[in-house]
Each structure stands twice: as C-alpha cells, then as structure tokens.
Amino acid sequence: MAQYTQTFLEEAMSAARGCWALVAGKRDAATYFDFSQRGLVGSFIAVAIAVGLAGFGPMLFGAYAPPGAATQSIIMNIALFIAQAAMAYIVLRQMGRQDGFIPYLVATNWVTLLSAVMMLISVMFGPAGIVILFAVVAVAMLTFINIGRYVVTLKGMQIALLFISQAVGVFLAMGILVLLLPVPAMPPV
User: Fold this and answer.
1) Is residue 118 within 8 Å of 132, Cβ to Cβ?
2) Which of 16, 68, 91, 175 has the fewest CB atoms within 10 Å, i.e. is most exposed?
3) Of 6 and 62, which is predicted with more confidence?
4) How does pLDDT run across 136-150, given as a tens digit for each residue?
5) Burial of 3 (0-12, 13-18, 19+ CB in 10 A)
6) C-alpha closest to that of 30 among 150, 170, 182
7) Segment (H or E) for 3
8) Quick one: which of 87, 92, 95, 114 has its CA closest to 32?
9) Alpha-carbon separation of residue 172 from 60, 80, 89, 144, 175 (angstroms)
10) Alpha-carbon distance 143 to 95, whole Å?
C-alpha cells in the first residue's frame, strides 16, 4: 500500500509549527519535524531559501546594495552554515551523540528560514526594524537551547559546549572570509 508523503509546503507548515513550539518551549517540538532523508533534503531547501532571502531580499524592498553585495552575502552565509554544521557534527561525535546530528540539522535549518524571514521583515520597517533584529537574536538563542533540550535531548553543559564550539567555528569562518572577500563599495552619498 502506498504511503502518503508530505508536499514541501505541508512540511514547511509543520516545521513552522515546530519552530513555534521551540520558541514556546514545548517538549513535543521534535514531533513537528521530519528527520527522514526526505525531511533533511527539505530542510536544506529551507536553508537555500533563507540564504537567497538574506542575499537578495532587501533589494526587493528597495534597499540599496552595492554591486556584488548580494553574492558576498550568499557566499558568507553558506560558509557560516558549513562551519556551524561541521562544528555541530564534531562536538556531537565527541559526545557520542551522532544520532542527534540529523535532528539538530533539520530543526536548525528550519529555524534559519524563520530567522531570515524575520530579518527581511525588519528591513520593511527601516530604522525601527532594529527592534525586530533584537527579537531575531532572542528567538535564535531560545530556539538553539530548546533544540538542544527537546530535539537532540542534550544536558545543559552539552548545550553550552555545542554553543561555544559553533561560536568558535563561525568566528573562524568569518575571519577567513574577511581575508578572502573584497570589501563591498560604499553607497553613494
């Protein structure tokens, strides 16, 4: 008998409910995400959409971007994503929790899309959008902790180690990218 498979839109809606459950601190947050191979691919599509929104989204709302800035944003976001995922894999492996890597990655990928949408909304509000950016940071921290608690089922110290390792990986990747990528041109006065 054929099994029903979710469409990408249905998966995205379920993941959005999962992201909200993570923000709300609900213990059943993991049940909203698809941790199968198909779900992993869907979460990578969500990251691709998030990276595209981060690179080209502001221009859709008339924000000035110097030539090449969108491409640099996309390159930087991809590099940071790879650094973050690699550090998560290394730390979870060291903890003997490789089983948590796919669930961690899937949930984090969907939260990345949620964050990108929130950041794009902040652009619409101009300077007042800074409030939304602070909300994005708060939501990102909260969801990171709750992914560790409710999706990967890590203990407090393990979550802290995962966070520190990812921060180090992201800072190293940013340092390397700053050395490799040219500085974008300043906007005209």
Assistant:
1) yes
2) 175
3) 6
4) 889 889 999 999 999
5) exposed
6) 150
7) none
8) 114
9) 31, 9, 16, 20, 5
10) 21
